[in-house]
Amino acid sequence: MNQLIDNFGRQITYLRLAVTDRCNLRCQYCMPAQGINIVDRKELLTYKEMYRITRVLSELGVNKVRLTGGEPFVRKDFVKFLEMLDFNDLLDEINITTNGALIRKHIKTIERLKIKSINLSIDSLDKKKFADITRRDVFDEVYETLELLEKSNINLKLNVVVQSGINTDELADFVELTKDKNIAVRFIEEMPFNGVGLKEEKDVWDYNKILSEIETKYDNIEKLVDGKSSTSRNFKVNNYTGTFGIIPAFTRTICGDCNRIRITATGIFKNCLFDDGVFNVRDFIRNGASNEDLKKLFLSIVAKKPKDGFVAEKQRNSDVSESMSTIGG
After folding, report:
1. Most C-beta atoms within 10 A of its C-beta, which of 23, 83, 127, 316?
2. CA-CA distance, 98 to 153, in Å (whole number)?
3. Nearest Cα to 122, choosing from 153, 143, 152, 144?
4. Gap between the Cα atoms of 24 and 31, Å rounded
């Protein structure tokens, strides 16, 4: 079987697929207050097109899919798509990234599917601060989702975007959640994908600074062995139930063994978070491409995957200023 291997010998086994560019929140680091110019629905990949793309990629060795948005549960019939995707016997994992505001009534259904883990985005444990960050008052709903997922059979990870002067005083509070809860908290370096470009920050909270801040509160931290292609560097406070990790998303020290590709809600294939997008798969399909055509396309595109995010950024034709909601979580 042909496999997706780039020119650096890295095998691609992980697809991040955005199912929508729409979101019910307006997080400051993700999009402007007024939102973004959402595309017409007919420009979005249909669920059948998404399933076909995923099936073809799985026949080329992709065995893990993460569904993102925008907010995936905003899109009508998203749970039915999960049930459809569950039929793909070549997938070992289907994971979801969500803001948690709309998922509660679907948890029982999701538990029956091939959903291995859910990443819940929550950037503050303070209700007012949460509302300031997201520009929406849904903290109670999101925290209830956290508690329900922690009690479910689904692995729960919390995504915390570390924002200078906003939530850096809460790092230890998040670590404390791992004392009695079987969760993985992941602190993420803030990136410039908010629809307006990079903010000027004098106080940059990168991997080293985040870890140093946590170490001022704990002297019994154990470094864990990170899995191959892990996006986070992982730790555990001794005798705590859960774990915490740091994702060096902006300093990009995790690129060396990258095994990921992205496809946006409109079908733009991205070899890297920082590239412009290299091909419109949606149009290729709608112009009559066969599955074999798709396989040849994917093999040729992945072969050109850049070495790392810095190379991808240099090759762009525009500034890095899209919304993360447009790119896909």
Report:
1. 23
2. 17
3. 143
4. 11
Cα(25)–Cα(23) distance, integer angstroms: 5
pLDDT reported for residue 190 = 87
Q: What residues of the chain score a pLDDT lower than 50?
A: 194-199, 325
Euclidean distance between CA atoms 65 and 285, whole angstroms? 20
CB atoms inside a 10 Å sphere around CB 182? 12
- Residue 158 · residue 185 · CB < 8 Å: yes
Contacts of 9 (CB under 8 A, 6+ apart): none
CA distance 324 to 322: 6
74-92 per-position pLDDT tens digit: 999 999 999 999 999 999 9
**What b-and-e string marks burial along 262-276, b requiring 16 or more CB atoms within 10 Å of the CB?**
bbbbbbbbbbbbbbe
Sign of CA dihedral 167, 190, 45, 6: negative
Q: d(Cα 188, Cα 173) in Å, to the nearest integer?
A: 15
Q: What is the pLDDT of residue 196?
A: 46
